[in-house]
C-alpha cells in the first residue's frame, strides 16, 4: 500500500504549456526559436525568429492566461501536487541581469497561490529546456563556466521568493539530455568542435550548478527538498551472449546511472575514466559536488529497449534514446515500446544503488486522440498504459519497501510535444482544442481518463 501522503498529480514544462512568450518582460528562451516538426521532420533551431516559420511554444496552450481554469480541473481530479517549471527568461530575460523581472516573479506568485488554495503542492523544476537564448549566443551556453553563477543567482532568487510556498524542487530536467540533445539543453557546439568533449564539460558545469543550488536551498529553508531529474530507460540484452549482457549493463550505466552517481553520491565514478574525456574540474568543484548531493531522485520513465553488442537490427525510439525492437512488447503510435515491468526493474536498481527516495515525475502515453460522434474522447489505451505502470509501481513498493514519494503523469493536459513540436501527440487527461498548425479555440475538455485518474487518486491507487 502506498503511504497516505503519496504525491499524486501531473507534470508539465513551462515552455510547453505557458505560451505568452514575449509578455510581461519575458525574454527569448532556446525553445522560442525552435520550430514545429513531426515524426519524420525534426524540429529546427533557427537562432532567431523567422517570419516564415511556426514556433508552437510561442502560444502553446496559453496556460499563462488559463492557469486558473486548468488548476480547477486538476483539483477536480484530486491532485496532491503539480509539477511545473519556472521559465528562466520570465525571471532573468537575458540571463545575466543584475536584478530579476518582478512581473515574472509575480506570475508565479499567483500560480503557486492558486495551487495552494486548492490543496495542491507545487513541485518546481528550476530549468526545464528553457534557458535564456542570450546566454547561448553571448556565452556559448553551458560550456562556459560563467553559467554556473548565472544559474545559482537565478535559483537563489527563487528560493528566497517562494520560501515556505514551494518545498519540492528539481534542479535540471533530464540532465542527461545535455549530452544527447545539446542545443535544447543549452549547449552551443560549433561545426568542427569536439561535440563529446564540449557536451560533457557543459554537463560538469550543470552538475556543479546543481550542487550549489542544493546547498543554497537547504541554507535558505531547511525544509526544502531538492532532487535531481534523470531521463531513464531500460536496455535488455538481446540474447544470452555474455557480451549482450555487458552491453545492456553499460547502456543503463552510461545512459542513466552515471548521472545519478554524480548527483547522489557527490563524485565522479571510477568508470568515467573509460569515457576518455579530460574535463576542467577544480578543487572547489569537487567540494561542491560532495556538499550538494540531492535529497531524492526524480525520473521520467516511458519505455524500454533491447541492446546488442553487434551492429544491425531494427531500431526503435523512446523519449530521446534509441535501441533495438523488443518482439515481446507492443509500441505506441510514436514507436515507444510499452513496458511496465521495466519500471519495476529500474526502481529496484535505483533504490538498491542509492537508498534515496524515488519520485516518478514523468510517465504517460502520447496518442493522436480523436473526438467521437458523441463529442467524447474514449482514451482506453491511455488508461491501460497508466494502469499497468501504476500497478507495477505499487507492486515493487509493496514487495521491497521502496520509498516512493509520488507519481506525476506526463502531462495531465495536452501540451506541445518537446520532441516533435506537435500538438497531436497528446498525453493529457484534458483535451485542448489546438492542432499542429496552431489553429483552435484552446477550449479544454475532459477525456475518459480524467474520471479514471480521479478515482485512482481518491483511492490512493487501490482502485485501478
From TrEMBL:
Active site as annotated: 362 (nucleophile)
One cellular component term from this protein's GO annotations in UniProt: cytosol
Higher taxonomy: Bacteria, Bacillati, Bacillota, Erysipelotrichia, Erysipelotrichales
InterPro entries named in the record: GH, GH_1_N_CS, Glyco_hydro_1, Glyco_hydro_1_AS
Family: Belongs to the glycosyl hydrolase 1 family.
Gene3D superfamilies recorded: Glycosidases (3.20.20.80)
GO molecular function, a single term: beta-glucosidase activity
A GO biological process held by the record: carbohydrate catabolic process
NCBIfam families assigned: PRK09589.1 (NF007154), PRK09593.1 (NF007158)
Name of the protein this chain belongs to: 6-phospho-beta-glucosidase
Keywords (A to Z) from UniProt: Glycosidase, Hydrolase
Keyword Chaperone found: no
Amino acid at each position: 500500500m502506498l503511504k497516505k501522503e503519496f504525491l499524486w498529480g501531473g507534470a508539465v514544462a513551462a515552455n510547453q504549456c505557458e505560451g505568452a512568450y514575449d509578455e510581461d518582460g519575458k525574454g527569448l528562451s532556446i525553445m522560442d526559436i525552435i520550430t514545429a516538426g513531426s515524426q519524420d521532420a525534426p524540429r529546427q533551431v533557427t537562432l532567431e525568429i523567422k517570419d516564415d516559420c511556426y514556433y508552437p511554444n510561442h502560444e502553446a496552450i496559453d496556460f499563462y492566461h488559463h492557469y486558473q481554469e486548468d488548476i480547477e480541473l486538476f483539483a477536480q481530479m484530486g491532485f496532491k501536487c503539480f509539477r511545473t517549471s519556472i521559465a528562466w527568461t520570465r525571471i532573468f530575460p537575458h540571463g545575466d541581469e543584475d536584478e530579476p523581472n518582478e512581473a515574472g516573479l509575480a506570475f508565479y506568485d499567483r500560480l503557486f497561490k492558486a495551487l495552494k488554495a486548492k490543496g495542491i503542492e507545487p513541485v518546481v523544476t528550476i530549468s526545464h529546456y528553457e534557458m535564456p537564448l542570450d546566454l547561448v549566443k553571448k556565452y556559448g551556453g553551458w560550456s562556459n563556466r560563467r553559467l554556473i553563477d548565472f544559474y545559482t543567482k537565478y535559483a537563489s532568487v527563487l528560493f528566497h521568493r517562494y520560501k515556505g510556498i514551494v518545498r519540492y524542487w528539481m534542479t535540471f530536467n533530464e540532465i542527461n539530455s545535455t549530452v544527447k540533445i545539446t542545443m535544447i539543453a543549452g549547449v552551443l557546439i560549433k561545426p568542427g568542435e569536439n561535440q563529446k568533449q564540449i557536451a560533457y564539460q557543459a554537463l560538469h558545469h550543470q552538475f556543479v550548478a546543481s550542487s550549489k543550488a542544493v546547498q543554497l536551498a537547504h541554507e535558505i529553508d531547511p525544509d526544502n527538498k531538492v532532487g535531481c531529474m534523470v531521463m531513464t530507460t531500460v536496455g535488455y540484452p538481446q540474447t544470452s551472449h555474455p557480451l549482450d549482457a555487458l552491453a545492456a549493463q553499460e547502456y543503463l550505466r552510461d545512459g542513466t546511472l552515471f548521472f545519478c552517481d554524480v548527483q547522489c553520491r557527490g563524485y565522479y565514478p571510477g568508470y568515467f575514466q573509460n569515457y576518455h574525456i579530460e574535463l576542467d574540474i577544480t578543487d572547489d568543484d569537487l567540494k561542491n559536488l560532495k556538499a550538494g548531493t540531492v535529497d531524492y531522485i526524480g525520473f521520467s520513465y516511458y519505455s524500454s529497449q533491447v541492446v546488442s553488442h553487434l551492429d544491425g537490427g531494427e531500431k526503435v525510439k523512446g523519449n530521446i534514446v534509441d535501441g533495438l525492437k523488443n518482439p515481446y512488447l507492443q509500441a505506441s503510435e510514436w514507436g515507444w515500446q510499452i513496458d511496465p515491468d521495466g519500471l519495476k526493474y529500474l526502481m529496484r536498481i535505483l533504490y538498491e544503488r542509492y537508498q534515496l527516495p524515488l519520485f516518478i515525475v514523468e510517465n504517460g502515453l502520447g496518442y493522436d486522440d480523436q473526438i467521437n460522434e458523441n463529442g467524447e474522447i474514449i482514451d482506453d489505451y491511455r488508461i491501460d498504459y497508466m494502469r499497468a505502470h501504476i500497478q507495477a509501481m505499487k507492486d515493487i513498493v509493496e514487495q521491497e519497501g521502496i520509498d516512493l514519494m509520488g507519481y506525476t503523469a506526463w502531462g495531465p493536459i495536452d501540451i506541445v510535444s518537446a520532441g516533435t513540436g506537435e500538438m497531436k501527440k497528446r498525453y493529457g487527461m484534458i483535451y485542448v482544442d489546438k492542432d499542429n498548425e496552431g489553429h483552435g479555440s484552446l477550449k479544454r475538455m475532459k477525456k475518459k481518463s480524467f474520471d479514471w485518474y480521479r478515482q485512482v487518486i481518491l483511492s490512493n491507487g487501490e482502485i485501478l
